[in-house]
Amino acid sequence: MDPSFDADPVAEFIQQKGLKVSTVLLTHGHFDHYYGLPSLQSQLPELKHVLLHSADLELWNAGGSAQVFLSTVLHLPQPDRLLQDEEILYLGNYVIRVLHTPGHTPGSVVFYIPEIATAFCGDLIFYHGVGRTDMPGSNYRQLKESIQNKIFTLPPQTTLISGHGPATSVAEEVENNPFFH
After folding, report:
1. How far apart, in whole angstroms, are the C-alpha atoms of residue 152 and residue 72?
2. Cβ-Cβ contacts under 8 Å for 69 (sequence gap 6 or more)
3. Residues with Cβ < 8 Å from 117, sequence gap 6 or more?
4. DSSP 158-178
5. β-pairing, 109-113 with 118-122?
6. Does the keyword Acyltransferase apply (predicted)?
7. Distance CA 19, CA 22 (A)
8. Residue 56 pLDDT more than 70?
9. Among candidates 21, 50, 55, 22, which has minimal Cα distance to 35?
10. Is residue 130 part of a domain?
11. Looking at the predicted structure, is the pLDDT value of residue 76 above 70?
């Protein structure tokens, strides 16, 4: 999920554990969440599939806003599959619910695994914070609505793993996130 800049430790971990990874899930189309993908794919030949929400395809095709921060823009082949809200994915015996949570980007998603009460949130919500909404395609009102309607309705004990910073929980953010008080 979201292979950022330095893919080497991820590839090394996968190889050491003897795992076979065929698919990368992307929480959104910003370059800092997929810049390590070419390196990861070159080290893991079985890694063939990239999944992204359909509403972020335009952002993906434009280089994921990399031009704002970097001198080079990474252009990659099209994702293999475009995700939709409430789609169900499977990882072994685990069900992964795709929750479309626009705001940070039009196609931001959260990957929620009910069996382990864990949600991978990308840049939607952080420990006592929320994702940026000053980038092209972002929308603060949508971001707050996504959090209130899709995250704060998950069980309170759900662990929230964001793209940056420490993990938190639904209960912690409902109670203490300053953007909602």
Report:
1. 38
2. 31, 32
3. 155, 157, 158, 159
4. -EEEESSS--EEHHHHHHH-G
5. antiparallel
6. no
7. 10
8. yes
9. 50
10. yes
11. yes
Per residue in 100-155, pLDDT (tens digit) is 999 999 999 999 999 999 999 999 999 999 999 998 899 999 999 999 999 999 99
pLDDT score of 17 more than 60: yes
For the entire predicted model, the pTM comes to 0.91
Lowest mean pLDDT among 33-37, 89-93, 130-134: 33-37
Residue carrying the six token digits 């893991």: 44
- The enclosing domain of 87 has a CATH number of 3.60.15.10
Contact 168, 175 (CB under 8 A): no
Q: 22 by DSSP, 3-state: which? A: coil
| E strand or H helix that includes residue 61 | helix 57-61
Q: What is the dihedral of CA 63, 82, 111, 36, to 10 degrees?
A: -30
By CB neighbour count within 10 A (0-12 exposed, 13-18 middle, 19+ buried), where does 133 fall?
middle
The residue-averaged pLDDT of 76-83 equals 87
Number of structural domains found in the chain: 1
Residue 4, pLDDT score: 79
Question: For residue 83, is it within any domain?
Answer: yes
- Residue 158 CA to residue 140 CA, distance in Å, equals 23
Q: What secondary structure letter does DSSP report for 78?
A: P
Q: What is the DSSP letter of 153?
A: T
